[in-house]
Design a protein that fits this description.
CATH topology of the largest domain in chain B: MetI-like fold
CATH superfamily of the largest domain in chain A: Periplasmic binding protein-like II
Low-confidence stretches of chain B: 1-17, 253-260, 298-306
Mean pLDDT of chain A: 89
Oligomer: heterotrimer
Number of strands of chain A: 17
Number of helices of chain B: 17
Radius of gyration of chain A: 23 Å
Strand order of the largest sheet of chain A: 2-1-3-14-6
Shape of chain A: globular
Helix content of chain B: 55-70%
Largest interface: B-C, 108 and 89 residues
Distance between the termini of chain B: 20 Å
Low-confidence stretches of chain A: 1-41
Number of helices of chain A: 18
Distance between the termini of chain A: 19 Å
Mean pLDDT of chain B: 81
Chains: A alpha/beta (536), B mainly alpha (306), C mainly alpha (287)
CATH architecture of the largest domain in chain A: 3-Layer(aba) Sandwich
Number of domains of chain A: 2
Order of helices and strands of chain B: HHHHHHHHHHHHHHHHH
Strand content of chain B: under 5%
Chain lengths: 536, 306, 287
């Protein structure tokens, strides 16, 4: 085990200045001798942003993603094919339709040629990936590389089954892998288990910002200026105005947004190094009351509860809903999906305080998961990392253009300098981007105005933010009961919002969350946090 | 028969081919009405599904969901699914698994069900219990996977057939059918020295065509609709059956496990989702009328006469 | 002759069933069944500690089962009888073909179709609203939940379920009908004395099997619709286990509940079988 003397300090790296986890320490009774020896010795990989391109609008950690109006003149990133001629087996989830198989897929063939190893990818529809992952783990048949699905006692799993990457990626060592080095530091915190780097992140950064997307064209034609949404009262009134006939302002009951307006966007808090929850804070009642009021006003589509996300997006495209809660990045896919809608203009809703002023945006966890290599790959590890590095070639490079858009003239056409996907674009969806991915930027071919609006929105709402203080911390109890506790709590939320229970029932439900394991989880996070602090 | 009254003679003349009495007029009208309504309730959504699969995107978008009459026909959803040869290949896999699986299942189930009807056979009670109890205890995902793995079946089409080849429910139902045959026919054949296998193949099976057609259909539909075993047991998506391939076009499921992978994916358009439905149901629709002929045949009638 | 069947049963049912020993362990997939520690009956606490949410789920389950046995179960029988009495073979086949169609739709689609037609923003309500009329609330109304899921089950599977009964009816010999006709039996008497007795064994058999399934009611159908109506109205045993264990990948707990459900089913079926014997039916098995 190597001990890194150099540490990448993170304090201040995230907007709100939360001290983040450098490493985690399993408090669930870890007597693993290896874990004790190596505890908290890993330094995070040094962040070396790609210098080959200058974004049109700059990235700032915790504030904005880099944004590009057009694809820059692509620079070549790699010097040689990263592969070793042997196939690389990867298992991951997919949210795309199945691409043509290798023999019928020129993109995939070209990918294998460029990498110098055959990518043997086993895909599973995202909704079923956990089942696939669990059986594969139980059968001890993990492939060379795998997307890490849910797993109870995940830290122990990672230490037992995932290759230790610390030696290759910690500190300045990562500079041998410039693609991976260009992934921001905060992404790597999730990849450290019991003091060692065990995975590579799939960075999303601030493009996962939880947002409310709006049909601004509909607001404009109703004579409403989105800048007038300055308090809950104003929002409530505008919601009523946007409702009528078979149209509703909201495609969902916006509890998340109203919690942001009430300054309690996430349930975990940290103050002076003390972790806690705000579940018993009275502003919870305020946010619930407000959401309930929108529902009672009839401003929320009556079928909103439990509707599939795709139906919500259809309502948005069809104008049956003017506001929907979604991830920031859906801004662009909604443009693509609704190209037929005339005059479509999407904006994201600002976050005022409940009674005016400014609400609080929560910063998303920076990754859409992470990928690990099997502990059994042995000395192929550097090769696999080089392939991952190649797949993480940053925006602006030739490799990125290929990885994301495919072969020019086949999978996309060049319009100006932008790649515009063609009918054969589906060939690209082989799932390589779930193995390793570049840091995300704001870019949508041919929509510079949307890019500007989106970046402006990020910049505006991140003026006042909180990060998730539990990000990068470990809690054995959380890995075993947090989903069910959260599910129980959100079913009570739904009951309250839809008027099936009084708002006053919230406190009992929150107390049940805490008694059922929430309190223990806070204590475990605290211990994990303290261990990291002590180390620094 | 010679003492038949004139009244009963008329009655007999009025019976239909199946020997049943002719229903009264009000009853027929009532029945016709009920069935017309039932059929309408079923067909209306299907019209919606088919129409939406062929409707232009703007119309569906304006309707906010299903449409009942397409303004113009637009087959782009079918183009999108059928291009690239993926669906055609998957269709082949599905047909293979369904036909092969149904053959295996019917054979094994008939043998087992027949055995269970033979009172003279030893261990019959034990066997019955073995079948019945298996109906109520399901082994769970992980243990089943481990078993299939240890038999070396992973990544083979056999993994889509063998683990589900025997349905205890179907065996029990089949046994009830077999057991309901008039014992004297079998007894007579037994006295003539026919072997058990011969009893099964030349008496029981020919007399149970309707039951076998039904159980065969149960199995076939089960194989046809199955996607989960392919998802779990096959790593190579080139071997996927139709239902699993089509499943990847429906992006919604991320809400259950909470992966945020799909947020930048363009959702499947309703036309595409409905086209997927049409494509996955159509083959069964085509086969059904052919099977249906067997349901109606009262194979027993002739046998008893003889 | 039974050998292939027995081998399949042993290989894919009973051998994996041994794996359910994880019900008594704290099983982690990466540790393995053998090495996971024993925890006694800890995993059974979810159903044994009398949590009011569990009791609510159990009540809902039994209520839904009761509704399904009393209201849903007879429908395919009635349909089969009515279909069987059709004069025209062609119409009979056509109707049957139409009614079995919905069976091929997955629950996701059935739920979506019901929402499209009956939802608060569905076709019918949108029409009423555009005419200035009153709207109704079925989807998302906890009081209407059991009627709604019952209607969905009837819509989806009644037609399909007739197949089995029609297969039985196809065996009723023409002679029996003719003989009863000759004896002056009318339509109703024929049904009572010829048709129903022919169906009785299969009805009893299916009822007993249904009883064995009493604790499992439409998991997928219900979990899809829970967010719309809340857990008070919609939580059933299987969704309870899902929401309180399987979402956190608690395989041991799922196995524990599976074992208990299996035991309950065996007891219920054994009892029902005895009752059937009292009434002179063969039931599920008779030694």
């Amino acid at each position: 085990m190597i001990t890194m003397s150099r540490r990448t300090l993170l304090t201040g790296a995230l907007g709100a200045g939360a001290a983040m986890a450098l490493a985690s320490c399993d408090s669930g009774g870890g007597t693993d001798p290896v874990a004790e020896q190596s505890a908290n010795t890993a330094a995070l990989p040094t962040y070396v942003p790609y210098a080959g391109v200058e974004p049109d609008l700059p990235a700032e950690l915790g504030r904005t993603s880099a944004a590009f109006f057009a694809y820059p003149d692509p620079a070549t990133f790699s010097t040689e094919a990263p592969g070793d001629g042997q196939p690389v087996r990867f298992m991951g989830p997919t949210s795309f339709g199945l691409p043509p198989a290798l023999p019928d897929n020129p993109f995939w063939q070209e990918m294998n040629k460029r990498i110098g190893s055959d990518l043997d990818i086993s895909l599973t529809p995202a909704g079923e990936y956990d089942a696939k992952f669990s059986t594969t783990v139980a059968g001890n048949s993990l492939p060379d590389a795998f997307y890490v699905g849910s797993m109870p006692a995940r830290a122990k799993f990672m230490v037992a089954k995932a290759a230790d990457l610390t030696e290759y990626l910690s500190g300045d060592a990562v500079q041998d892998y410039p693609g991976l080095a260009s992934i921001p530091t905060d992404s790597w915190q999730e990849c450290i288990f019991e003091g060692s780097i065990r995975a590579i992140p799939l960075n999303r950064g601030l493009v996962s910002l939880p947002s409310v997307l709006m049909r601004n064209d509909l607001l404009t034609s109703a004579g409403i200026d989105r800048a007038d949404i300055t308090s809950f009262e104003a929002l409530r009134e505008i919601s009523s105005e946007m409702t009528g006939g078979n149209r509703w302002a909201w495609g969902d009951a916006p509890l998340g947004h109203l919690r942001r307006m009430a300054d309690i966007p996430i349930r975990w808090t940290i103050e002076d190094g003390v972790l806690d929850t705000n579940l018993l804070d009275e502003r919870q009642h305020e946010a619930l009351e407000a959401t309930r009021a929108l529902v009672a006003d009839g401003s929320v589509n009556p079928d909103a509860a439990g509707i599939p996300a795709s139906t919500k997006k259809q309502w948005f495209g069809g104008g049956q809903a003017a506001f929907i809660s979604d991830s920031f990045i859906a801004w662009f896919s909604l443009y693509v999906a609704n190209e037929a809608v005339e005059g479509l203009e999407i904006q994201a809703m600002g976050i005022p305080g409940m009674t005016g002023g400014t609400g609080t945006q929560n910063l998303p966890r920076p990754n859409a998961g992470f990928t690990a290599f099997s502990a059994e790959v042995g000395d192929r590890l550097p090769t696999l990392l080089r392939i991952a590095d190649w797949l993480a070639a940053p925006f602006g490079t030739e490799e990125y253009l290929f990885n994301k858009y495919g072969i020019a003239g086949r999978n996309y056409d060049v319009v100006g300098s932008d790649p515009v996907p063609s009918a054969l674009a589906t060939e690209v969806n082989i799932g390589s981007l779930y193995m390793s991915d570049a840091a995300r930027v704001i870019y949508s071919p041919g929509r510079p105005e949307a890019v500007q609006s989106a970046w402006d929105h990020q910049s505006a709402v991140t003026a006042k933010t909180v990060p998730d203080p539990t990000y990068g911390l470990e809690s054995a109890t959380a890995s075993r009961v947090l989903n069910s506790l959260t599910g129980e709590l959100s079913s009570v939320e739904q009951d309250i919002i839809y008027g099936r229970r009084p708002v006053s029932d919230w406190d009992a439900a929150a107390q049940a969350f805490l008694d059922g394991g929430g309190t223990t989880i806070v204590e475990e996070y605290q211990a994990s946090y303290d261990a990291i602090q002590a180390m620094q | 028969m010679t003492t038949m009254t004139s009244e009963s003679r008329t009655r007999a003349r009025r019976t239909m081919s199946g020997g049943q009495a002719r229903p009264s007029v009000p009853a027929t009208i009532a029945k016709g009405t009920v069935f017309s309504i039932a059929c309408a309730l079923v067909i209306l959504p299907f019209i919606g599904i088919v129409a939406t699969s062929m409707a232009p995107a703007e119309q569906i978008s304006a309707a906010g969901g299903l449409v009942l009459f397409p303004e113009r026909l637009d087959f782009s959803a079918y183009d999108a699914i059928l291009s690239g040869g993926i669906v055609t290949r998957a269709l082949g896999v599905s047909v293979l698994v369904t036909v092969g699986g149904t053959a295996v299942s019917l054979t094994v189930s008939s043998l087992l069900a027949y055995t269970l009807t033979r009172r003279a056979l030893p261990f019959r009670r034990g066997l019955t219990l073995l079948v019945v109890v298996s109906l109520f205890f399901s082994p769970g995902l992980l243990p089943t996977y481990l078993a299939v793995q240890s038999y070396g079946l992973l990544n083979s089409l056999a993994a889509l057939i063998l683990p589900t080849a025997l349905s205890a429910f179907n065996v029990i139902v089949l046994r009830a059918f077999f057991g309901g045959l008039p014992p004297d026919i079998l007894d007579a054949a037994e006295i003539d020295g026919a072997s058990e296998m011969r009893l099964l193949t030349s008496i029981v099976i020919p007399l149970s065509k309707a039951a076998l057609a039904v159980i065969g259909l149960f199995y076939a539909v089960g194989y046809w609709n199955a996607f989960f075993s392919a998802l779990i047991y096959l790593n190579d998506s080139a071997m996927w059956p139709l239902q699993l391939v089509l499943r990847t076009y429906v992006v919604d499921d991320n809400t259950i496990t909470g992966y945020d992978l799909a947020s930048d994916v363009i959702p499947a358009q309703p036309a595409l989702q409905m086209a997927i439905l049409v494509i996955s149901v159509l083959p069964i629709l085509l086969v059904y009328p052919w099977l249906q002929k067997h349901f109606a045949k009262g194979a027993l009638t002739g046998a008893i006469k003889g | 002759m039974a050998l292939p069947g027995v081998v399949l049963l042993l290989a894919f049912q009973y051998v994996p069933l041994l794996g359910n020993v994880i019900a008594f362990k704290d099983y982690l997939p990466f540790v393995g069944i053998g090495d996971s520690p024993w925890v006694g009956f800890d995993n059974f606490r979810i159903i044994l500690d009398g949590d009011p949410r569990f009791l609510n789920a159990l009540t809902n389950t039994l209520l839904i089962t009761l509704v399904q046995v009393v209201l849903v179960f007879p429908i395919p029988i009635a349909l089969a009888l009515a279909l069987n009495s059709f004069v025209s073979e062609r119409i009979k086949r056509l109707v049957q073909s139409v009614l079995y169609l919905p069976h091929f739709l997955s629950w996701v689609i059935v739920v979506a179709v019901f929402q499209q037609f009956l939802g608060g923003a569905g076709m019918i309500n949108n029409f009423l609203r555009s005419q200035g009329g009153d709207t109704f609330s079925i989807i998302g109304n906890p009081d209407a939940f059991i009627p709604l899921i019952t209607a969905q089950v009837v819509w989806k599977d009644s037609g399909w379920a007739t197949i089995l009964f029609l297969a039985v009816l196809s065996r009723v010999s023409t002679e029996l009908y003719e003989a009863s006709s000759v004896d002056g039996a009318g339509r109703w008497r024929q049904m009572w004395h010829v048709t129903l007795p022919a169906l009785r064994p299969i009805i009893v058999l299916l009822l007993i099997l249904k009883l064995g399934d009493a604790l499992s009611v439409g998991f997928e159908q219900i979990i899809l619709q829970q967010p719309a109506v809340g857990l008070q109205a919609s939580e059933v045993l299987d969704t309870y286990v899902y929401n309180n264990g399987i979402v956190d990948q608690n395989w041991s707990q799922a196995a524990a509940v599976g074992l208990v459900k299996g035991l309950v089913a065996v007891v219920l079926v054994w009892g029902a079988n005895k009752v059937a014997h009292l009434f002179g039916e063969d039931g599920l098995y008779r030694s």
